[in-house]
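Suppose you are handed only these lines of text.
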Amino acid sequence: MKILTGRPVEPSGAAPQGRANTAKISKHFVMASSPVVPIDPAPEGNTGRLIVVSNRVPIPTKDGTSSAGGLAVALEGALKQQGGLWFGWSGKTADRPDSTPHMLESGNITFAVLDVLKKDFDLFYTGFANRALWPICHYRLDLLQVDRTQTEGYFRVNRTFAQALAPLLRPDDTIWIHDYHFIPLAAELRQLGFRNRIGFFLHIPWPPSDVASALPAYVRLLNGFTAYDVVGFHTPQDADNFRQCLIREKIGFPFGNGEYQVGTHRFKIGAFPVGIDTETFVRTARTAKRNPLVRRMRESMEDRSLIIGVDRLDYSKGIKQRIESYSCFIRSNPQFRNKVVYLQVTPKSRSDVPEYKRMQHEIAEQAGWTNGNLGEVDWTPVRYVNKTIGHTALAGLYRMARVGLVTPLRDGMNLVAKEFVAAQDEDDPGVLVLSRFAGAMHELDAALLVNPYDTEMTAAAIARALEMSVEERRERWQALMGRLRANGIADWCRDFLAALHGDQPVVPDRGERHKTPRSRAAHVSS
Ligand code: F6P
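From them, the structure of the protein bound to 6-O-phosphono-beta-D-fructofuranose can be written out as follows.
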């Protein structure tokens, strides 16, 4: 690992505000060390570097290892393949403006990260990104904060990032920009004269135009998208919502084969469902029973069955509704009293955003209330933990669980659903209860699908999962595993880059191609 000229980056571990500055672009929890996901060789003729841009950057640790989760590992794999640069926020705020990134070299990857003015970062991240874009993209019109200063701050920070990235770019670089923090970045780079191929992948949902159009600077954002060569979403539904937004605003017009034209610029809009590193996760889960936390958990369970939920503390995850459904399940199925434990692992998140601060109290109160009402002196029905749990321990807990509750009110993909499936013992698998509003539902339709707003339906699904025969559990699990194996993280990375390099039609849509026949899909009706 070599520190480059300019300013040295501080290796992971020195993150401010109690945050790890490890890769948080994935919903995964942090992994101790990361294998490289093999990506097929870069398409012929493409000799330039790959530039990845994301708000969080997985800066390698002092000993040169990376502490990135699955998604970041895949991107790192692609970067290693082609050589390149990973650019984003340093995890720190500055008191004075400075547009020089901190640089660090690790093998053929350069990490370049920027400090952002504290005031600007608050407007950009705590403000527009997480109080306008996040709620609207998760269909929460009621939580939208319209604030002109925040909106301007968001666009200004994007310009600052573009200006800091510009001197690092070469004409033959391919640029892959990630997530809602950086929608206008390509437009800013184009303004600066860059003609490189630039792709964008949105890690969160994109809503229908009636919801999206409530966004401040809506048309400006839509126009920002049109500066890309490929705009990718997790699901065909998100891609279609986005296309409809352009059509309704009369911005350009659609072409066949997922292409869209604005002025003289033709770009692609497609669905690229993100996957996990399935085989690595399977192996981790198999050996995780030796993990001390997993052992302690098993001992503490006695002969009770484990029901597990793992989510960042976020209103989009439906944790409140989930605890309510669990309570309903216990009340209507007294035979399960003292026979089950529901573990909800929920690391705190975005605590500077008022909606999140409020939620911390609400959920803690609700968990306490449930235990007070339903518990016994020798039984705590809900174990609610605000901790980040390591990757191996999580894999072991998933494998131990009889039921995985993944019931977001809205989610781009939800990789916990995929990891829960991959972690199961094939002879005696647990059952996934999955929200119909998670992107993962498009592939994992052999799970028990529920409407998380419907308390009784979700409660019935929990009971059904616990009572399901081993034959049915195996059959469902095999269908689910088939989907995971057909579309792993390396496929996602390769498909997107192939579309960006122009070697593949858009909408690879592995989800649709490997779909389980509808008759086998497991909708639970209330
Ligand atoms: O789901 C969108 C996302 O940006 C993820 O990519 C990331 O893991 C998560 O939100 C965490 O967000 P933050 O960086 O705000 O903690």
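What can we learn from it? Residues 1-6, 10-44, 507-526 have pLDDT under 50 and may be disordered. The first helix runs from residue 70 to 82.
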